[in-house]
Design a protein that fits this description.
mainly alpha, 4 helices, 65% helix
């Protein structure tokens, strides 16, 4: 199951490379990059045609790989959670530079 999730993720990475590299796909994908308020919703904002093409691509990958249903569900949950996190306008705390040096 882990290999299936990694394989599907690799396929989606390739799809993302293609939407940036192929002009006709970029014209659809730039809707995502045109978002003026870079926030959590940016991870879900795509041109409707790009969503349809992405779904067809995923269906093809699932058909070729034949992964277990649980692997597909897990992949989709991880993919969407990571998209929301990566596009979320959040600040992570910086590590404490003085931690553990004993100079308190």
């Amino acid at each position: 199951m882990t290999i299936a999730v990694i394989a599907m993720d690799s396929a989606i990475w390739l799809q993302h490379v293609m939407v940036h590299a192929i002009p006709v796909l970029w014209r659809l994908h730039r809707v995502h990059h045109a978002d003026l308020d870079y926030d959590l919703t940016t991870g879900a904002r795509f041109h409707p045609l790009e969503i349809i093409l992405s779904m067809l691509f995923k269906f093809a990958i699932i058909t070729v790989l034949g992964p277990p249903v649980l692997a597909v569900i897990l992949f989709e949950v991880i993919l969407n959670a990571m998209a929301m996190f990566n596009h979320g306008n959040v600040r992570l705390p910086l590590p404490d530079d003085d931690a553990g040096d004993g100079d308190d």
